[in-house]
C-alpha cells in the first residue's frame, strides 16, 4: 500500500512528466525568431556567412523556409523545424538549389519544392517534373515496351529569386496510385511485368526570357550544413532537354 506521501510524490512525478512531454513535443510554436536571431544561429556553422534574410515562409505551424543572401553575395536557403520547444535549423544550402522538402514522407500533399536562384543567372521560369523513365525488356522471347511518365509544372521567376510550391494535385494522385500498387503484392507483381523499375522521381530545369534552356551557373561549387538525423530534404536532379520525352512550348 502506498502511503499518502508516496501517492502525492507519484502524482507530482506524473504531472511533471506530462508537462515536460507537452512542453517539448506538443506546445504551439513561439513566434518566429527575428532576422538577427536567425543569422546568429546560422553563422555558427562553418562556411556560413549570412548577411541578409530575404523572407520567412511558414509551410505549416512547425516548418519554416528562410531564404538568405550571404556576405559573398550567394543566394542560399535554410530549413527550420520547431522541435523540443525551439526553432532549430535542420539544413542550410549556401547556393539555394531547387530541392523538395518532404514535411511528412508518407503524405505527398506535404511535399514542397523550394529554391533560391541568383538573379544574375537571369532565370525567367523554373520547370519541375515528375518522371518515370521509359524502357524496353525482353524475357522468354517476349518484347515489352514501357512508356515514360512525364508531368511538369512551371513556376515564374519574374518577381523574386526564391519560392516554395506544393506538388500539383495531379502528381499526388499519380504518386498515391504507385504507392497503392507497392502496398498490394499481387497487383505489384502484375504491374512489374508491365512496368519494371517503375519508381518515380523529381527533376527540374530552367529557362531564360527567350524560353531557352539555361542552367544557373551560380548553383555550382557551394556547400552547406545538414543535421545528420534529418533526411527530409532532397536535392533535385537537373534534367537536360535530351532526357525529356517531349518539350512543352512555355
Present the secondary structure layout.
Elements lengths: L3 H23 L8 H8 L7 E4 L3 E4 L2 E8 L4 E9 L2 E8 L5 E4 L8 E6 L8 E8 L2 E5 L2 E5 L2 E8 L5 E5 L2 H15 L1 H10 L6 E7 L16 E3 L6 E3 L1 E2 L12
Keywords: Membrane, Transmembrane, Transmembrane helix
Explain how this protein is built.
By secondary structure, the chain is of the alpha+beta class. It has a domain at 90-243. It is built from four helices and 16 strands. The protein has helices spanning 4-26, 35-42, 169-183, 185-194; strands at 50-53, 57-60, 63-70, 75-83, 86-93, 99-102, 111-116, 125-132, 135-139, 142-146, 149-156, 162-166, 201-207, 224-226, 233-235, 237-238. Strands 1, 2, 3, 4, 5 and 14 form a six-stranded antiparallel β-sheet that branches. Strand 6 and strand 7 form a beta hairpin. It is globular, with a radius of gyration of 23 Å. It starts with a helix and ends in a 12-residue tail after the last strand. Keywords: Membrane, Transmembrane, Transmembrane helix. The chain crosses the membrane at residues 7-25.
* SS-based class: alpha+beta
Radius of gyration: 23 Å
Q: Which whole number gives the mean pLDDT?
A: 84
What's the tally of helices?
Answer: 4
> Distance between termini?
78 Å
Task: Tell me briefly what this model is.
The protein has 250 residues and is an alpha+beta fold. It contains four helices and 16 strands.
Defining key terms:
250 residues, alpha+beta, 22% helix, membrane, transmembrane helix, transmembrane
